[in-house]
Amino acid sequence: MFFLFVSSSFLLDQKLTKKKKLPGAFVISVGNLSMGGTGKTPFSIFLAKLIHKKFPDQKIIILSRGYSAKGSLRGHRVGPHSTPMEAGDEPLLLKKHLPFAEVWIGKDRYSSYIHFREELRMRENSIVILDDGFQHHVLERDVDLVLLDSSKISKERFLIPAGNLREPISSLIRADQIIFSKYESSIEKIVQNIQNKFSKEILRFSLEPDKLLSPNLQSDSPKILSGKKVYAFTGIGNPEVFFR
């Protein structure tokens, strides 16, 4: 009964929501089906860097909700001096890794986009990466990318509150590309089943440690930890892969 109610409510919301087009923007939505921890942030960083490498003169904008950030209510342009309270930790991380990109947050992402575009007097077209956009039906998008957590895909079957899914697996029919994050070859059979079921292009995305950063910002190779006892702490969602 709960599943039918959620599915019906979701379809009704999607049908009744009037979609808005961001002027002067090619919109790439990066989202997922579950409650976080799928690797959207590192994938968005990878995607933005890839676009910047191929099109260095192209303006890139990351448009995020900025969950729990004070700046989310009225909109906030994330800069080098923004605080976690103003911008949220993920938008700050995005800005740190993507200094060439604009990072804007706002509860009303359409209004934030219009406001900062006018404030900066932007006239050129831009590529907008819509963070956590799969369930954000208000905005039109040109490409819908959906990440599935490879470490959880065999277990995630039920909707909230019985499980961790925001919407059913069948919603993948709306995606343009399905990305298996934290990919491991052991789930290849599941990958093939989903590809056969939805006839979508499949991408496989893995996360690997790049470097260690000390409190004084000195970097080193992760290999220095080999054979040593390590105490690890994390605030990310679904941290099992990180600990492995």
UniProtKB/TrEMBL annotation:
It comes from the Bacteria. One of its GO terms (biological process) is lipid A biosynthetic process. Its EC number is 2.7.1.130. One of its GO terms (molecular function) is lipid-A 4'-kinase activity. GO terms for cellular component: plasma membrane. SUPFAM superfamilies: P-loop containing nucleoside triphosphate hydrolases. It is an enzyme of class 2 (transferase). Keywords: ATP-binding, Kinase, Lipid A biosynthesis, Lipid biosynthesis, Lipid metabolism, Nucleotide-binding, Transferase. The keyword Nucleotide-binding applies. Pathway: Glycolipid biosynthesis; lipid IV(A) biosynthesis; lipid IV(A) from (3R)-3-hydroxytetradecanoyl-[acyl-carrier-protein] and UDP-N-acetyl-alpha-D-glucosamine: step 6/6. Transfers the gamma-phosphate of ATP to the 4'-position of a tetraacyldisaccharide 1-phosphate intermediate (termed DS-1-P) to form tetraacyldisaccharide 1,4'-bis-phosphate (lipid IVA). This is Tetraacyldisaccharide 4'-kinase. It comes from Leptospira interrogans serovar Icterohaemorrhagiae str. Verdun HP.
